[in-house]
Design brief:
It contains 9 helices and 10 strands. It is of the alpha/beta class.
Length: 240
């Protein structure tokens, strides 16, 4: 007999997670019923999606209109040489479905603009901003607020990771947290961080924030910005 939400196969597969304190069968059901959109299928975005698939998210949206490039393989662990020139969103879906066929995956391989962003966000419960340009960050944050969606935000620059969660009731905007897109922490921003470790780690933390939100757990990143600096292994919380 199958559970109304989880199949017997899913219960077997996620049994180690179900046994964890704070998860349980009801928590796993919440994860299965969640609908998460990840915008950006680069280094941190794909790491985030791999973790979400592993956790059992039931419906995952992949949004990216760009192609896999050789120059970005050094920071994007999902792709390989055979993927160069292919659509990131499509390659990502193929990889993730091979990893877990129990998750429904929808591809949005179009550029999200002011004309289609709100319609796309309306299909999901939670939004992950894994893009890496501030024009995108600002637009996604505003659209998420208008749609009353929880936003999990990640940015990589100067070989640091910046992560925060903005709940619907929180009036804070990314534009307020980062008013100068060219200057963060007193340093000129370099958006092209080649190191794969900071991208992968940031993506996993983004996924953890999504799971916390789905399970309605309090987050240390609500009203706080996590700054990760792997050169000295520092993890700092900064009030925002």
């Amino acid at each position: 007999m199958e559970n109304k939400v989880l199949s017997e196969r899913e219960i077997r597969r996620f049994q180690p997670q179900i046994k964890l304190e704070g998860f349980g069968l009801e928590g796993q059901k919440k994860i299965k019923k969640s609908r998460v959109l990840v915008i950006g299928a680069g280094g941190k975005g794909t790491a985030c999606m791999k973790a979400l698939i592993g956790a059992g998210v039931g419906f995952l949206g992949v949004s990216d209109d760009s192609l896999v490039q050789e120059t970005t393989l050094s920071r994007q662990s999902l792709y390989n040489d055979n993927d160069i020139g292919k659509q990131k969103a499509i390659v990502t879906k193929q990889y993730l479905q091979a990893r877990n066929r129990l998750t429904d995956i929808k591809v949005h391989n179009i550029r999200l603009t002011s004309e289609n962003l709100n319609k796309t966000l309306s299909q999901y419960d939670l939004i992950v901003d894994a893009t890496n340009t501030f024009s995108s960050h600002y637009a996604i944050c505003e659209a998420s607020a208008q749609a009353n969606k929880t936003l999990v935000f990640g940015h990589i620059g100067n070989n640091k990771g910046y992560i925060t969660t903005i709940l619907p009731e929180n009036k804070k905007r990314i534009r307020q947290i980062f008013p100068d897109e060219n200057n963060i922490d007193g340093n000129i921003m370099d958006e092209h961080t080649p190191v794969i470790a900071i991208n992968s780690l940031s993506g996993i933390i983004l996924a953890n924030e999504v799971i916390n939100a789905v399970l309605e757990k309090p987050s240390q990143l609500n009203n706080n910005l996590l700054i990760i600096k792997l050169s000295d292994y520092s993890f700092n919380l900064q009030a925002v």
